[in-house]
Design a protein that fits this description.
22 helices; mainly alpha; 438 residues
């Protein structure tokens, strides 16, 4: 076997040198460019009508070749790299034979497009041409539309700089086709929302996000993460948070509260959701606030140690006029934290004072603030070098502001004198506050 092999190689080399010797005086003609498979297949398909009858036997054989090619594709993805070249060749032969038997078999072109992307050196343009043939043959070919959507998304430069408008429009069209064929496809709606955001089409972005929120849980998220990065995931939770943020920017506080409430209920420890929720409370009407209360109660029940969450529930209750219920929530949280986390307990006590100030219950506010100082161990201690000095300045400042708001300047002056020694003789806090009162 080896002798035959080396003999064949020697014969080939001798012929090669003989040819070179003959053509030494003339320049060899340039090599013919390789015709892409997509062009060859398109010519095979050219002139074919989808209504052209193909015998049942040929269709059956075409499907068998399609399945054979797909089996090789499957093996290429899961076996070692040594199988790739041979597997690609076998898959290509089978799929091209399927097209030869039935030129209208769109799935075979889709599989060939997948093959063009599965090798070590993917050919994006070739895959696009093949997928376009598949989509032309069958407008409901899901795989073809998804390949076109993904590859044009790469060409659009989405998430990586200046948007390529031509590729972006093609991507949007193909993702719309994917969503038409699969209305609960999370990837399609997520990319559509990203494109609409890049184009500053707020209403279309909101529609896409709402569809993303109601989409099915995706099985494959790798492509989305490669394009958009790891900061946002292809999940309902991220879609809900994103939608709440966009609605808030659009001035729809009620809609923002509705979706941000879901985010908080799903993840009470999400700081971004809590901050956005807090912002949306400012412009919400009473009905929206009442709905938010239910979501917050549920979240607090799950995570009663979350200080910000408890404060948001109390503030929302107070905004609806339920001040006593708000006070009850905060006092309960203070009692739960006072033995294990005095800092958190004192902060919650300050939040109680703030609610009483807003409700013009000044005496109760002052009592709440004083209790906050007491919990921290701040009463008559000199705080010149104490770590609690900043906290004390903030709380005493709140008490002074409460008296000023209630038009009780004498009580404010008495309070300043009471706490003057607390901050040390070199601290000007008391003098500055006294000037504001005067």
């Amino acid at each position: 076997m080896k002798k035959k092999y080396f003999a064949a190689v020697g014969f080939f080399v001798s012929i090669l040198f003989f040819s070179l010797n003959i053509s030494a005086q003339t320049s060899p003609p340039p090599p013919k460019p390789k015709i892409p498979d997509s062009v060859i297949l398109a010519k095979t398909n050219e002139g074919q009508n989808q209504d052209t009858s193909v015998s049942r036997e040929r269709r059956q054989e075409a499907y068998q070749k399609l399945l054979e090619g797909q089996r090789y594709l499957w093996a290429m993805r899961r076996l070692s790299n040594t199988f790739e070249v041979n597997g690609a060749r076998l898959a290509k032969n089978a799929l091209q034979k399927a097209v030869e038997l039935d030129p209208n078999l769109a799935e075979a072109y889709t599989a060939l497009a997948e093959l063009a992307l599965s090798v070590s050196q993917p050919d994006i343009n070739e895959a696009i041409l093949l997928a376009e043939i598949a989509a032309k043959l069958d407008k409901n070919n899901f795989g073809g539309h998804r390949i076109l959507a993904r590859l044009n998304t790469i060409k659009s430069n989405l998430g990586r700089g200046r948007l390529n408008s031509e590729a972006a429009e093609k991507s949007i069209f193909e993702w719309q086709e994917v969503s038409r064929l699969d209305p609960r496809n999370a990837e399609a709606w997520a990319f559509l929302s990203a494109f609409y955001e890049a184009q500053n089409k707020r209403n279309l972005q909101i529609t896409a996000l709402k569809n993303w929120v109601s989409a099915a849980t995706p099985l494959e998220t790798g492509f989305f993460n490669r394009v958009m990065g790891e900061t946002i995931q292809l999940s309902v939770e991220d879609a809900t948070l994103k939608l709440g943020s966009v609605l808030l920017k659009s001035g729809d506080s009620r809609g923002a509260l509705e979706f941000l409430s879901r985010s908080i209920a799903d993840d009470p420890n999400n700081p971004e959701a809590l901050e956005l929720f807090k912002q949306s409370l400012a412009g919400a009407d009473k009905n929206s606030l009442l709905s938010a209360v239910d979501a917050l109660r549920q979240a607090v029940f799950v995570n009663s140690k979350n200080e910000l969450l408890v404060q948001l529930l109390a503030q929302t209750l107070a905004r609806t006029g339920q001040v006593d219920d708000a006070a009850k929530v905060l006092r309960g949280a203070v009692a739960d934290n006072i033995s294990g986390d005095k800092n958190s307990a004192s902060n919650l006590q300050v939040a109680l004072g703030d609610i009483f100030v807003e409700s013009e219950r000044t005496n109760e506010a002052i009592a709440a603030y004083q209790n906050a100082l007491k919990i921290r161990g701040i009463e008559n201690t000199n705080l010149a070098k104490n770590e609690n000095k900043d906290f004390a300045i903030r709380v005493v400042g709140k008490m002074i502001e409460a008296y000023k708001k209630a038009n009780r300047p004498n009580d404010a002056r008495i309070l300043i004198e009471k706490y003057r020694a607390l901050f040390g003789k070199d601290d000007l806090f008391a003098e500055k506050e006294l000037v504001t009162v005067l």
